[in-house]
Structures are given as C-alpha cells and as structure tokens.
Amino acid sequence: MKNITMANNGHRIDYLDSLRAFIIIIVVLHHALLAYSTAASPSWYVANPETTIFVDGVILINDIFMMPAMFFIAGFFVLLSMRHGIASFLKKKILRILLPLLGGVFLLVSPFISYLGHMARGDYTLDFFSYYFSVYLPQEVEPHHLWFLSFLFLLFLLCVPLFIIRQKLSGKPAGEKTRGESGSPVFFLAFGFVTALLYFSATVFINDGYWFGIGGFFAFQVTRAVFYVSYFFLGAAAYKRDWLAGNRIYRHGRLYVFTAVFLTMLIIIFRALAPNPGDIGVKLINALLHSYVCLAWLLSLLFIFHKAGEAGRRLPGFLVTNSYRIYVIHAVPVIAAQLLLVELDAPLYIKAAAVFSAGLGISLLLSILIQRVQVLVAPVIRGGTNHG
Question: CB neighbours of 184 closer than 8 A, spacing ≥ 6?
Fold first, then answer.
C-alpha cells in the first residue's frame, strides 16, 4: 500500500499531510467560533452580543487536542528534515518558519489583528498606518496565533544539539530509523499518565490561562507547554521507531475512537458540574481527563486518516498544499468577518458559518495568490543571482 511503502522508504506519509490540513481547518473553525462562546467571547477580539453554551463544548475539545496534534506532526517530520544535514535543516526552518513569523508579527498579520481588536472595542479613531507606527510598533507587538511558529522554531533549535550529541554517541545519522515494539496501548496509557501529572503540577502553581511572552514575537500558554513539548518528541519517536508503518498502532483504532468519544462526553460533563475548579482534587481529575482526551483524539485521527488514505480518500490537494499559509493568514479575515457581522440581526449559527467560510475561503485565495507570485518571482531572483 502506498502509505506503508512511503513510511518504510523514509518519505513523507500522505495521510499525515492531510491530517495536518484538517487540523488547520479545525483551527480556523475554532477561531471563528470564539466570538460566539459564552466563556471565550469576552476575551476574544470581537464579542458577539449573542452567545451559546453549545459552542463552548466544541471550543473546549478543539482547545485540548488541535495544537498538540500539530506539534506531533511537526515532530514526526523533524528527523526526516535532518537527513540532509544540520545546515540544510536550519536553512529550511529559517526560511519556512522564522521569516514568515517575523514578517507576520511585524508587518502583515499581527498588526491587522491588533487593529481590528481595537476597532471592535472602540479604543482608537486612528487610521491603520497611524496606529501601526505610533501604537503597535512601540507598544503592542505580539504574535497572536503565530505563537505556534515561534514555539515550533524554538523546538527545532533545541533538536539540533540533542541530535548532534545522539549522533556522536550512537554513530548513526539523525534520521535513521530503528524498529521498535513501543506504541502499544500500555505505552500510550503511561504517556498519558505522565503528561497528566506534569500538566497537573503546572496548574497547581500557574493559572491555566497564563501566557508568557518575550520580545513581542515569542509567547506561549505556560501550562500547555507540557503537551507541546511532549507531543513534539512523541512524534519524533513515532518516526524513529516506525510506529506508523502498516497497522502497528492501528490494530486498536476503533478502541481509540470509542475512548475519544466517551472521554469527550465525560470531560464536558465534568467541566460543567465541577463545584470548585481551583480545588486540588478537581485539578487532578481535570488533568487526567484533559491528557487522555488529547491522546485519544490524536490516535483516533491518525487511525481515521490512515484508513481513509488506504481507501484512496484524501483532502483536496489544494487544501493540503495551501494549509500552512492558511494558518498564517486566517485570523485576519476571521476577525474582520466577525467585526462586520457583529451588529447584523441574524441567527448566531448563520453568522458563525459565514465567518468560518469567509476565513477559510479568503485565506485560501490569498494563499494561492502568494504561491503564484512566488512562482513568478523565483526565476527572476535566481536569474539575478546567477548574473551577480
């Protein structure tokens, strides 16, 4: 089968690219719904007058698994990226991660997000360029959703010395696979328990909603860093041990799906009925549920997309190839659409669907435009370099 062959030959696995594109679509949906959540809308850029508790449940589950899944996929491909050497690896990550991050934070994405947020709150009467130079650059530089790129780039940098040391100790290339029998349900139960304890320990001392930032372009939710780092290296281990080859971790796929659905209902009920979220026992139970919901949905989605890939069913190629740029761009059209519709007298779900459609559609169109410009400009740059 194509997916198995690709895994064994050390190439990219198609269904993981499709899964990443799906997760990014979930991210767009997540941000589109935040304006209509009873819990989240007061702290979001745009607060819709009407909210619903039903949106809260969708946001709760998305918030648990979507970013750890993104880090898992990034970790899975990190060793593959190192097969051509550390210098090539760093060059690619600077071009693909760091430069878009800096451009998005200082020029193209974050300034517009901040400005739209101020417009929604009625803070300023400044035009955008006056705001950008007099307020944003001196005082308000922040990554917004691009925090993912800054944290991911930090993990890539961390990988370099770790894999250099390992390569010297083992005498093997960083990207060489070693077959292993890990990846069993027992292993995943242990992994979920360890991440739950780490997450619980963090929430005992740090508020779960606390964000730490440095320099305006690096920020992360401190307690959730447990999952980001753990799942990144879990992905690297999955590649190294070749867990995704064949059906090695998919033999229990239906059990993972059942577990994910059951735990999802359980954590929604628990969050709704928990008497005191600050109680130490409540925090422990919440950490255990959070950890296993996250893990169960990751394994379920891997199983579902693996089975779909075997059957020849994949997401449209244009969504897969444009997914990264959609992630970078999407928050601007999403927030702009929420702001345009905030005073519209229409059912909440119609507005939410319109925001999601506009956010995804406009981001896709802009991504395709950017891609075509890159195709046109690249030969000119190469030609100029050759003649220089």
Answer: 249
42, 43, 44, 48: CA torsion to nearest 10: 0
Residue entry with tokens 């895994």: 7
**63-65-70-74 Cα dihedral, nearest 10 degrees:** 140
- Residue at 294: amino acid letter: C
Tokens 């041990």 sit at which residue? 241
Q: Which two tokens stand for residue 112?
A: 């517009």
3-state secondary structure of 227: helix
Comparing C-alpha atoms, which of 134, 154, 159 is closest to residue 214?
A: 154
Q: How many CA atoms lie within 13 A of 305 on its CB side?
A: 21
The DSSP result for 241-273, as a single string, is TTTTSTTTTTTTHHHHHHHHHHHHHHHHHHHHH
Closest CA to 232 of 169, 151, 291: 151
70-119 pLDDT per residue, tens:
999 999 999 888 888 889 999 999 999 999 999 999 999 999 999 999 99
Residues 350-358 have a mean pLDDT of 97
DSSP designation for 144: G
Task: Please list the alpha-helical segments (H only) found in 140-224.
Answer: 147-170, 185-205
The sign of the dihedral angle between the CA atoms of 310, 71, 104, 132 is positive
Query: How many structural domains is the chain composed of?
Result: 1
User: Quick check: pTM over 0.90?
Assistant: yes
Can you tell me the mean pLDDT for 312-335?
A: 94
What local confidence, expressed as pLDDT, does residue 3 receive?
39
Domain that holds residue 274: 2-387
d(CA 61, CA 215): 31
Q: What share of the chain is helix, strand, coil (3-state, %, to 5)?
A: 75, 5, 20
Residue 86, H or E segment: helix 86-93
Q: Give the mean pLDDT of the chain.
A: 89
pLDDT in tens, 9-39: 444 578 999 999 999 999 999 999 999 999 8
Task: Give the Cα-Cα-Cα angle 223, 40, 219 (nearest 5 degrees).
Answer: 40
- Treating both helix axes as pointing N-terminal to C-terminal, what angle do 53-81 and 225-240 enclose, rounded to 10 degrees? 40
Q: What are phi and psi of 249, to 5 degrees?
A: -105, 0
How far is it, in rounded angstroms, from Cα 302 to Cα 289? 20
Contact criterion met (CB below 8 Å) for 86 and 164: yes
